[in-house]
Amino acid sequence: MNRREAINTGLLSLAALQAPAMGAMLGSNQQNENNMDTKAPFKHSVCKWCFNDLSLEVMAEKVKDMGITSIEIVGPTDWPILKKHGLTCAIGNAPFISLTDGFNDINNHAKYQSMFPELLQKAADLGIPNIIVFSGNRRGKSDAEGLENCAKGLDPIVKQAEKMGVNIIMELLNSKVNHKDYQCDKTEWGVALLEKMGSPNMKLLYDIYHMQIMEGDVIATIKKYNKYFGHYHTAGVPGRHEIDDSQELNYPAIMKAIAATGFKGYVAQEFIPVAQDKLDSLRKAVVLCDVAL
Q1: Closest Cα partner for 293 from 32, 24, 28?
Q2: Which end of the chain has fewer CB within 10 Å, C or N?
Q3: Is 155 helix (H, G, I), strand (E, B) or coil?
Q4: In a 3-state reduction of DSSP, which class is residue 207?
């Protein structure tokens, strides 16, 4: 299953929605609720779709001793399961939103705006901090037109999110390898959208894998634009596999750059493991990313 398929499976949750190194806490050498030491000032999460051979219940039990306190990119029917296991969903799906048919198409606005209030209320009730959204594919739209459409479509949703204490997070994805024609494929475009929106509850998901492919300069970008980033994803380049020395990115250095910005949100592992022991790969990735200031 790829990311697009994982997002689309959230549609199955729509009917249910509409019906009536290892750290997770802040500070150095503290312990989280799963009795793991922590060094990083940010928290650790993992994307469920990368481990879809495991049920959510099983995965929740397996990651508890890794310093992971969130399993993300899951929909509202899964949030109570995570809460039952003492975990959260750092960034939740809006199960009715398509990655390719996003807010840059004005024909989607009325539908999405009508469905968000209930989703935002549920997120607020269960303490889900972020909901993911997508620009959608260009389909011939200029950057200026796509940006204007996204701003118009998202404005009432973001205003609702402000009232409920939930963040709306638009993801930066590469349009070169994985998501052909996706519009929000450059940091500066995403930043321009956020500047136009002018809301503290609208942020970008800076996906390190995707932006390394599109523009490089990962650490310099984090230093320059970190105030616009509300969430981070990892994966190895090329291939989107383990973040070990088989790929080109220096993840400890990147994590130190993130830590130095004072970021206290979530960094999520979103690599597709190729090792036989997938959970061991996940554990090693968290250790690699758990850096102190």
Answers
A1: 28
A2: C
A3: helix
A4: strand
pLDDT in tens, 41-78: 999 999 999 999 999 999 999 999 999 999 999 999 99
Per the structure block, which two tokens stand in for 240?
């989107």
Look at residue 293 in the predicted model and tell me its pLDDT: 84
Amino acid at 203: K
Domain segments of the chain as ranges? 3-289
* Segment 250-257 long-range contacts (CB within 8 Å, at least 24 positions apart): 251/288, 251/289, 252/288, 252/289, 252/291, 253/219, 254/208, 254/218, 254/219, 254/222, 255/40, 255/288, 255/289, 255/290, 255/291, 256/291, 256/293, 257/218, 257/219, 257/222, 257/223
**Structural tokens at position 37:** 């030491």
113 DSSP assignment = H
Give the DSSP per-residue string, 157-169. Answer: HHHHHHHHT-EEE
| Predicted confidence (pLDDT) per residue in 163-220, tens digit | 999 999 999 999 999 999 999 999 999 999 999 999 999 999 999 999 999 999 999 9
Structure token digits, residue 18 = 């509409």
**Cβ–Cβ contacts within 10 Å for residue 107, how many?**
9
Instruction: For residues 209 and 232, give the distance between their C-alpha atoms in angstroms, rounded to a whole number.
Output: 10
Q: What is the DSSP letter of 90?
A: S
The stretches of the chain forming alpha helices (DSSP H) are 3-8, 14-18, 56-63, 79-84, 109-126, 143-164, 187-197, 208-214, 218-225, 251-260, 278-289
Beta pairing, strands 37-38 & 30-31: antiparallel
Structural tokens at position 47: 């994307």
